[in-house]
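Input record, target 12 of the design panel.
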């Protein structure tokens, strides 16, 4: 059985269909496969390691914790991001400090904080209880408490939310728009402004620059009774984390 599992682990790096089949069988085998997947990680490329992370998450075996922490030092930014998110989703003990270090290292590489890796790591820190997003009082009040598990705020309030966040020194990165129809959630295209911030600028400048772009976006945003918006924003401590 072990040799078969070893074969499956090697196949995680194979062609898409082969990797998908190996992933499904490893998940079906479950906890018995985890030690062999862990042992095989160093020999896998980025694609295989990402697929292995999916196996870890689906099986939910905490023995993968040390291996996931090791992947935080990968040369592949997506592997680092997925490893951090898996550590959070699996609630691995002792993950907080390694994930914090991974985030600081990410910023030291000058990775823009609106890129996927730092965003994923911030999510992981939040899930692990090591980060508390700043939610100003007005923004908190405007968020619906029901409405089919709405993914955010009614888009009609976007201008108020933008100003509230900026008034509380938050930098808005971007906003996603959603339509809720009979309990189902669909993505909606918003204004394609694609602004870029100069992350070497002072924090106060970043706050006002993001306010200006976000208000312009709000002026062109879709609006309707079933249209919601989910802004993503960061605090000064996310760009300048304490050591």
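The sequence produced for target 12 reads:
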């Amino acid at each position: 059985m072990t040799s078969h599992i070893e074969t499956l682990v090697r196949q995680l790096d194979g062609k898409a269909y082969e990797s998908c089949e190996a992933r499904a069988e490893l998940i079906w085998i479950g906890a018995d496969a985890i030690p062999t997947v862990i042992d095989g990680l160093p020999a896998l490329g980025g694609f295989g390691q990402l697929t292995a992370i999916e196996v870890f998450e689906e099986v939910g075996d905490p023995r993968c914790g040390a291996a996931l922490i090791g992947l935080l030092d990968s040369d592949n930014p997506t592997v680092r991001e997925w490893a951090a998110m898996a550590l959070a989703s699996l609630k691995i003990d002792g993950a907080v400090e390694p994930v914090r270090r991974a985030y600081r290292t990410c910023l030291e590489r000058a990775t823009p904080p609106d890129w996927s890796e730092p965003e994923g790591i911030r999510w992981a820190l939040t899930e692990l209880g090591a980060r508390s997003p700043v939610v100003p009082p007005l923004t908190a009040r405007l968020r619906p408490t029901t409405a089919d598990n709405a993914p955010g705020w009614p888009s009609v309030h976007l201008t108020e939310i933008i100003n509230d966040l900026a008034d509380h020194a938050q930098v808005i990165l971007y906003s996603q728009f959603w339509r809720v129809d009979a309990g189902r959630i669909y993505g909606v295209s918003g204004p394609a402004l694609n602004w870029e911030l100069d992350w070497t600028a002072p924090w106060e400048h970043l706050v006002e620059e993001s306010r200006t772009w976000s208000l312009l976006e709000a002026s062109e945003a879709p609006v309707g009774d079933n249209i919601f918006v989910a802004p993503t924003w960061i605090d000064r401590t996310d760009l300048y984390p304490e050591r």
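Residues 137-239 form one domain.
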